[in-house]
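Quick one, tokens below:
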């Protein structure tokens, strides 16, 4: 298993501690260190979620049986697979055989 990445401090050019690490701040504060110096804080950009989450493509496979709807259904499957890698089937469908709830 790979070891975790190491973390090293980056000190600004005008660091008043003479480029000493965070341990120096703790050791010299006499237990009075109230906050982490800004030079040691990594700001993480905020993750913005879309206003409306994208919806998973839903395809009715019964359209494969009708000559008028077959081309559109095949195109819908192709687009869903290319853009999402999967899709949800809207009705009970099993390779053309009716689904029996009792079995």
């Amino acid at each position: 298993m790979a070891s975790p990445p190491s973390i090293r401090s980056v000190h600004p050019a005008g660091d008043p501690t003479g480029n000493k690490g965070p341990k120096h701040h703790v050791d010299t504060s006499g237990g009075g260190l109230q906050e982490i110096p800004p030079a040691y804080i990594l700001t993480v950009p905020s993750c913005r979620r879309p206003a409306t989450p994208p919806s998973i493509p839903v395809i009715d496979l019964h359209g494969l049986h009708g000559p008028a709807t077959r081309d559109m259904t095949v195109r819908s499957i192709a687009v869903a697979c290319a853009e999402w890698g999967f899709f949800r089937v809207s009705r009970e469908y099993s390779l053309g055989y009716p689904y029996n709830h009792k079995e």
